Structure prediction request, 433 residues.
Amino acid sequence: MLDDAPFNHTAHATLLDLFSEFGKIGAVQSGGISRLAASPEDGLARDSLCDWFRHHDFEILVDEIGNIFGVLDLALGDPTQHFFCGSHLDSQPDGGKFDGALGVVCACVCGLVIKDAVAKGEIDPFYRYYVVACWTGEEGARFQPSLIGSSVFVGLMPLEIALARQDHEGVSLRHALSQIDYLGTAQVPAPGHYLEVHIEQGAKLETANIPIGIVSSCWGAKKILMEVSGRPDHTGPTPMEDRQDALLAASHLVVQANEISHHSTSTLYSSVGRIDVSPNSPNTIADKVQLWIEFRSNDGEALLEAEHQFRHSFDGIAKSTGCELRVASSEDRAVVEFDKHGIANVEDVLSKSNIPYLHMTTIAGHDAIRLQSVCPSTLLFVPSRNGISHSPDEFTSDDDITAGFDAMLHAVSRLISAVACDDLQPSSCETKN
Ligand SMILES: [Zn+2]
Prediction:
């Protein structure tokens, strides 16, 4: 029985040391890091990870989109089964040290503790292999979209399209990955379960003074790219009634998106984060505007209703402004529910170990969301001070890191021992420990 097994706490020192090493790679003056996907700094972080893998007997695999996998043989369990843990090493420009890297480091050190526990007979694993995954381009800062590596891995994005994505300078992801020598060819075994530890990027855990959050679902999103066409004219002499002002029509859309959120009966967020105006001259009435609009909610019906209302407003806006409104593209991200069986197992093992936890949902995207489409996945949050992330001020204390790591160890030791189960109802699955 491993539920109450005291883990070897020298692991905490290893964890904190390794984490501080990654915090130095790509460090910038502000105190944060800049480690854009497939940049030289990302390359150095990847090299450090691979050195660590080599040093600790992990086999290294790099796939065609540059995802890195460190495979650890537990020497017991079903040799066809692989348990994955991981996160990402890329960051936002001038971002924080904790977003992503903490999950990778936790996954690394967790593997060592699990292997040790298996060797001592404290864990009888169902999965023979423990795999640390480091996903390419999670942040979407240099190459869009975000979650690019995990999306390709699970088959939600074609490899060739992903490799052809270009950064602001026109450099393709394929070229950038080959420059840092992480354009691989490895065929990677399928994950049986995926678990990720990530900073919360919100302040709920800190406020409640609880060390770990179990994420049950991820909000869905609807992202709409609009094109508005009017007519260019002099901003001076053109009579008001003759104007076809595309920026005016676009402004109505901005307000409309906001109103829809405020009037929704569900929790619905909306924003217009980017507008491109043409010709963007102070003396010419805008004739072309592109707007990037998004709605987010944990209620799929509310998202459908928001899109319906948004589209319903087009006729009135077109009529009042004389402009043409067109949806250039519309992307749906469904609400994702994490594996209930995994959640039930983690709840159970944390309760038995007297580790308090909070149920949470995530609004931000994470690689675990992509993995849930191919295997049961578990996402655990640790506290973020003041809820700040994507900033040099991002911070999680050593105590919160080690408490989160202990919770992760309990969760992994339970899940890695779980008998595979087709029916994900918690009551009909057994655990083998
Ligand atoms: Zn992240």
Remarks:
- The chain has two domains: 10-219+335-428, 220-333.
- The CA atoms of residues 291 and 415 lie 44 Å apart.
- Residues 88, 99-100, 138, 198 surround zinc ion (CB under 6 Å).
